[in-house]
Design brief:
The complex is a heterodimer of chains A (241) and B (466). In chain A, 44% of the residues lie in helices and 10% in strands. Chain A has 241 residues and is of the alpha/beta class. Chain A has two domains: 147 residues, P-loop containing nucleotide triphosphate hydrolases (Rossmann fold); 65 residues, Orthogonal Bundle (Helicase, Ruva Protein, domain 3), CATH 1.10.8. Chain A has a five-stranded parallel beta sheet, sandwiched between helices. The longest helix of chain A has 20 residues. Chain A starts with 26 loop residues before the first helix and ends with a helix. Chain B has four domains: 112 residues, DnaA, N-terminal domain (GMP Synthetase, Chain A, domain 3, 2-Layer Sandwich); 145 residues, P-loop containing nucleotide triphosphate hydrolases (Rossmann fold); 72 residues, Helicase, Ruva Protein, domain 3 (Orthogonal Bundle), CATH 1.10.8; 90 residues, DnaA protein, C-terminal DNA-binding domain (Chromosomal Replication Initiator Protein Dnaa, Chain: A, Orthogonal Bundle). Chain B is built from 23 helices and ten strands. Chain B is globular. The chains are: A alpha/beta (241), B alpha/beta (466).
Chain lengths: 241, 466
């Protein structure tokens, strides 16, 4: 039986903002980020940590924050953009905030392309610094371990704030999932959330993707989130791949 | 009316487009309303513009028309910005007096017209803007020590007379070259208020020149740079491999020197070590005074930390400053980065900056420095490769100088970078511990006295840490 496809499903997806960010052990990072955005502090920030620690969330929230203040932000998620080349950094000193997400991606380029990327980033850093434009960068490891060859770039990226993002404690993940579900207009009871966490111990980013999937299925099949429903939808997903 | 229309459009799109796509492609756009029927959307660069044109333009026209009471609409997408440089104090190029008042100008701003919307482009303005010097980069804020005393004195002299022309300051990344050069700029601003002082990074010279060629204003470009009173050009190593830019810089440089206009350059290495640069240019670059900045001694690093903390009204104890300087001691930018982090952590966590707290707050920054990941075999191989020797030669009993010096350097690097004892290092080189001590002393003496040894040593350290 083919289920009815919900129209404009994406209209339901909330953006990642500071209001749905849970800082916990990353409170200092969060507070410092706000200071950077308000140009009260140093203007570059390098955040690193494993997948699912909220790096992309923070950068997208920063973009939204700038936008709400009538500023123009640029957000470039390197792991999501295919065919991105160093000229994507041209002219970015003319905006009000630059966010570069997952820049470790450039280190898998060929040596010649890596050099081009490094020089482009070096130039961008200088231009942003000159124009007092905040720069937020995330990666999966700290600057010195990124595998960059251009010392001048490593030196500059180490100049501003550099913070490691710590993973959230397990008990916070449930709260985040429930908060996210609420923002989608879904109710995620404790026992259902616990089921998700215990049966799918992937990182938070993946769990959020599952919730999007469940939201879609819930709208299509007009069913509430329950353990049998989750089992059905996520198992469907696995068997379908 | 412009902002509300665009704001309403954004609100609709935010509900239609996945958040990440919305943040990447839609938020960077800025709308300019030329008239009720003509709207220009500015994208920061071609990369964003192409994607928006390809995937979102149809929906944008549809939505904007709908929100504009269904009036027919012409939508134009182009690269541009509403934002001017934060430090901009525009004056027309013709207004030389105004330009002189601003002192620090950049050619690049003249090309900024290309990013303006068509209304501005149709009537191009030759707009010059101040190119900012970092306000913190003054002589007063520079902490001089033995490692940079000569460079400091030379920069001070350059701010007073044109005796050393050109002045070439070189050294590793993050050691204060830009600071010294800009300090000259600040001082000249005060002592020669009429002088036309230009500061720019080399990559900007290159990109402005390319744009000048594209826009057919290369003669203006040449005339402009050859007419400045003082040229401060940063990171000249980025001219390497760029033949056309080297050619232009060579002529600019000669004109300035012949006209007794001051040229100050910074670089990550000595002129003759600049690979990818024409010999005649290398020779010209080194024709004035060449000075080096080196890694500061611990006491200088401690002073730097305490002075920078004092700017934030924090008194950093000797104990904490020494702790940080002991772990981060090869790069002042990294040192400042650690201090920024420590101060922010103390403020937001409401903690006193004690030694324990510093250790806790900086643990991941210090970790790689605390646990060196070098091993003797790796160092031996890298040094042998660097000097194009075989590993057997390096470890042999042969006493020719071409082998002895690299061997001493390898031994010295092992002592500096590993935690192995003198006996262990000696064993790895088939030598006794007194030879290790002798090699170490010899190399460190030469590093202070012989530029080529210093360069080899720094390069090897860099390679090994990469």
């Amino acid at each position: 039986m083919s289920a009815q496809l919900p129209l404009a499903f994406r209209w339901q997806v909330p953006s990642q903002s500071f209001s749905n960010y849970i800082a916990k052990s990353n409170q200092t990072v969060y507070q410092t980020l706000l200071q950077v955005l308000d140009k009260k502090e140093e203007l570059s920030m390098y955040l690193w940590g494993e997948s699912g620690t909220g790096k992309s969330h923070l950068l997208q929230a920063a973009s939204q924050y700038a936008s709400a203040r009538n500023q123009i932000p640029v957000y470039l998620p390197f792991s999501q953009l295919q065919h991105i080349s160093p000229d994507a950094l041209d002219g970015l000193e003319t905006v009000d905030l630059v966010c570069l997400d997952d820049i470790q991606q450039i280190t898998s380029s060929s040596p010649a392309m890596l050099l081009e990327w490094e020089q482009a980033l070096f130039g961008l850093f200088n231009r942003l610094h000159e124009n007092q434009v905040p720069l937020l960068i995330t990666a999966n490891t700290q600057v010195q371990s990124l595998g960059l060859n251009l010392e001048d770039l490593v030196s500059r990226l180490s100049w501003g704030y550099s913070f490691k993002l710590e993973p959230l404690p397990e008990n916070c993940k449930r709260i985040i999932l429930q908060k996210y579900a609420t923002s989608l207009g879904l109710s995620l009871p404790d026992k259902v959330a616990d089921y998700l966490l215990s049966h799918h111990p992937e990182n938070l980013k993946q769990l959020i993707i599952y919730l999007d999937k469940l939201n879609y299925a819930s709208l299509a099949k007009k069913r509430r989130l329950s353990i049998p429903f989750i089992r059905e939808v996520l198992n469907d997903r696995f068997s379908g791949e | 009316m412009t902002e509300p229309l665009w704001q309403r459009c954004l609100q609709h799109l935010e509900r239609e487009i996945a958040p990440q796509e919305f943040n990447t492609w839609i938020r960077p756009l800025h709308m300019q309303e030329i008239s009720k029927q003509h709207i220009v959307l500015l994208a920061p660069n071609r990369f964003v513009l192409d994607r928006v044109q390809q995937h979102f333009s149809a929906r944008l026209i549809e939505l904007l028309t709908q929100l504009n009471h269904n009036q027919k609409l012409q939508l134009q997408l182009q690269v541009g910005t509403r934002r001017k440089s934060a430090q901009a104090q525009p004056s027309t190029a013709g207004d030389r007096a105004g330009q002189k008042r601003n002192n620090i100008v950049s050619f690049g701003d003249k090309l900024a017209q290309n990013r303006e919307p068509p209304t501005n482009r149709a009537k191009p303005q030759r707009v010059w803007q101040q190119s900012p010097l970092n306000q913190k980069f003054t002589f007063q804020d520079f902490v001089a020590g033995n490692a940079n005393r000569l460079a400091y004195a030379a920069a001070q002299q350059a701010a007073e007379t044109c005796d050393f022309n050109p002045l070439f300051i070189y050294g590793g990344a993050g050691l204060g070259k830009t600071h010294l050069m800009q300090a000259v700029g600040h001082q000249l601003r005060q002592t020669r208020p009429q002088a036309n002082i230009v500061y720019l990074p080399t990559e900007r010279f290159v990109s402005d020149m390319v744009k000048a060629i594209q826009n057919r204003v290369i003669e203006d470009f040449k005339a402009y740079y050859r007419s400045v009173d003082v040229l401060l050009i940063d990171d000249i190593q980025f001219l390497a491999g760029k033949v056309r830019s080297q050619e232009e810089f060579f002529h600019t440089f000669n004109t300035l020197i012949e006209g007794h206009q001051q040229v100050i350059m910074t670089c990550d290495r000595a002129p003759r070590a600049l690979d990818g640069l024409e010999d005649r240019l290398k020779s010209r670059l080194g024709s004035g005074l060449t000075v080096t900045v080196d890694v500061p001694a611990r006491d200088t690093l401690v002073s730097i930390l305490q002075r920078k903390a004092a700017v934030s009204n924090v008194k950093l104890s000797d104990e904490v400053a020494e702790f940080i300087a002991n772990h981060i001691n090869s790069n002042i930018r990294e040192l400042e980065g650690a201090l920024h982090r420590l101060l922010a952590s103390a403020r937001f966590m409401h903690r006193e900056i004690s030694l324990d707290f510093s250790r806790e707050a900086l643990h991941d920054l210090l970790a790689p420095q605390i646990q060196p990941q070098y091993n003797i075999t790796e160092i031996q191989q890298q040094v042998a490769d660097y000097f194009k020797l075989s590993l057997e030669d390096l470890l042999s009993k042969r006493r020719q100088r071409v082998i002895v010096r690299p061997r001493q350097m390898a031994i010295s690097l092992c002592k500096d970078l590993t935690e192995q004892s003198l006996t262990e290092i000696g064993h790895a080189f088939n030598r006794d511990r007194s030879t290790v001590t002798h090699s170490y002393k010899t190399i460190h003496k030469l590093v202070g006295a012989d530029q080529s040894v210093q360069q080899d040593y720094q390069r090897l350290r860099t390679q090994l840490s990469g």
